[in-house]
Structure formats: structure tokens, C-alpha cells
Amino acid sequence: GCRAEAAAYRQRSRDLGGWQACITCGQSFTGKMKMGLAEAWWSAVKGFDEKNEERQSAGNWLAQALDQQGRHAECEEMCRELRAVQQRMSGPDSDIAMRTAHRLGDVLCDQNKMADAEVVHREVHPKLREQLGSDHPDTLGVRMSLGNVFLKQGKLDAAVATYQDVRAIQRRVLGDEDVATMTTTLNLASVFGKQSKFPESEALLRELLVVQQRVLGGEHPGTLDTSYTLCLALYEQHEYGEAKARCREVLAAQQRVFGAEHASTRLTVQLLTLISNHT
């Protein structure tokens, strides 16, 4: 299998890709396999000089894997270590140091360390804007992260303003069918819902759903998330007939894709019960 292939490959080659993707099928490692290989790679090279290129690559790969596995405290520790080294090697404004800082800010947000996360993102954003421009994906990514911090802080107006600015640039530069644009649109619609601006939320969700169904397909997890959120917006506006019909469609798809016990499926069951109480 891929794990055995990766292990054998590393015995006969120093190519760093042997830790990250299978050379037979070309697929990047994910999930527990990625985590296990990332930890093994780091264990093999962490004793190297801190300026060693492979040590830096392994550390970045481990930080990514830890983040994806929800091991946020460990990811934070790794990001702080990597950032300190990168700042000494390349300077605080280097691309690699700022990318690591962006991940650090995100993982701080994941741990509800909002003040610290905001400080990091506010530090990184103007530097990226100056170096790369306002339209660059990295600059937009940090602005999105700052919007996420505002949202979790309950600063809804600030979150809306940030998401709207980012979305306008994404639509112009990337187009409506880009994943980043779709994510921002869903975030903006969700914040409108939190502000009880349900017509505005509904309009965005209907627009987004058309794009997602065309690009991703009707049973893609992202499409299903949007469909669920639209059901919620319809319910809040007392449009129970359409809400119930759509909710049944979403539930059937979630049961096929995720299974009956998945958290998203259970949420849809709860919403369908609420809607049914009004019909």
C-alpha cells in the first residue's frame, strides 16, 4: 500500500516528496496516514541544524497535519518554533515567516485565543498587502482569517464589512466558481443570518447554490452545507413549505453521503422537526 511504498521510497531517495505523496499513485497523504508520516519525518530530522531545509519542510508539514487533525495546541507550539527560526533566517517579513504567522493566527482562533489571533493577523496583513498587493490570494486569505476572528468575537458588522470587501475582490480576480469565493459567500450569508438579515442571507445562498450545484455537484459537502443554511433562512422567514421540501432533499442526500449518525445529518433532522411543527 501507499504507506509501505512511502517507507521503501525514503530508504532509497532523499526526495522530500516521499513523505508527502505516494510515488506510485501520486495521491497526497491525508488523515491519519499523513499524521503518522509527518510525525515520523519530523522525528527523523528534528535533530538537524535549525537552518536545514529538510527540517524546515518537515516542520511545516507537521504543523499542517496537526492543524488538520484538530491538535491545535501542538500546532501552535510548532508554528511558534518555526516562525522564530524563519524570522532569524530570512527576516520577519519573509514569505515563509508570514505564511507560518498566518497559520499561527488561524490556530489561535481555533483555540478561541481571539485577542492573540487578531494581533497576529493585523501584523501580517499590511505587510502582505504591501509586498503582494491587495488582490493576491495570500493577502485575501489573511483578511478572511481576520473576518473569522471578528465573527467569533461577535463583531458582526466588522465581519460583514471584511467578507464583503474580500468577496468583491475574489469575484473580480478569481471568479464566482473559485472555492475561495464560494467559501466567502457562505460565510457572509451566515453572518447575515446571525444579524437576522434573512432576506439578504437567502439571496446570497440561492446564488451560491446554483454555482455549487454546477461546479461541485448536488451531493458535495459544501453544497449540502449551503442547502442546509438556506433551509434555515427560509424557516426563519416562516417560509415553511419550501423549507420543508428542501430540508427533506438535504436530509436524504446527507444520509447517502455521511450516514444517519453524522453531526450534519442530525442537525438537519432537528431542523426538519422544527419545520414540521409549523406545517
Question: Can you characterise this structure?
Answer:
This protein is mostly helical. It is built from 13 helices and no strands. The protein has helices at 2-12, 31-45, 53-68, 72-90, 95-110, 114-132, 137-153, 156-173, 179-194, 198-215, 221-236, 240-257, 263-276. Helix 2 (31-45) packs antiparallel against helix 3 (53-68) and helix 3 (53-68) runs antiparallel to helix 4. It is globular. Mean pLDDT is 89; it is low at 8-14.
Low-confidence stretches: 8-14
Q: Roughly what fraction of the amino acids lie in strands?
A: under 5%
Radius of gyration: 21 Å
**Biggest sheet architecture:** none
How many helices in DSSP terms?
A: 13
What is the helix/strand order?
Answer: HHHHHHHHHHHHH
Structural class: mainly alpha
Global morphology: globular
Measure the end-to-end span: 53 Å
As a percent range, the share of helical residues equals: over 70%
Arithmetic mean pLDDT: 89
What's the number of extended β-strand segments? 0
